[in-house]
Amino acid sequence: MTEAATPRGRPRSETARRAVLDAALELCQRDGFQALTVKAIAETAGVGRQTVYRWWPTKEAVLLDALRDLVLREAVRLDPDTGDTLRDVQSLLEATFTITHQLTGKALIGLMAEAQHDPGLSARLQGTVIGPRRHALREILARGVERGDLSDAEVSLDLAVDFAFGTMWYRLLSHHAPVDAGLARQITAALRKLLSPAH
Length: 199
Hints:
It is a single chain. By secondary structure, the protein is mostly helical. Helix content is 70%, strand content 0%. The protein is built from eight helices and no strands. It is elongated. Mean pLDDT is 91; it is low at 1-10.
């Protein structure tokens, strides 16, 4: 059966789906959000534009799905639990920053910009990408408080999470310094000082 004759609603090919999602992130990171088009995504993925539109109504929807899919694939790296709180914090931040630097940075910036005047997109971005990442870091910090490794007496965990990811967003937007493993180490060291238990 040809693609044109495929009934609407038929379960999508996992190979084609992954090709579209990978193409969207790679093109966005290479060319930027504004230059990204559904036509380019389809051509790079080796599928027809109608195939993309059948599954996703906009390029924003493709990118959101791609980001969510990537988080699921990287679930182990993005939710470490070795028993060492600070090692887990650094591991999560290193994994997040590496992915952001290599593949997702421009997609995140573009979606965040669009979300400023699209409440629906803002909610989806928070629910599928930003919120889960914040939750993962907060959970690691909360485990550290429970173990006695950290304390939230002076600085709340929510503020600590804002500090960690706020630094990432500021660098992504201003381009004045890298978002990389070095930043992950610096933020981890700063969180250790901010949340050090009283002796």
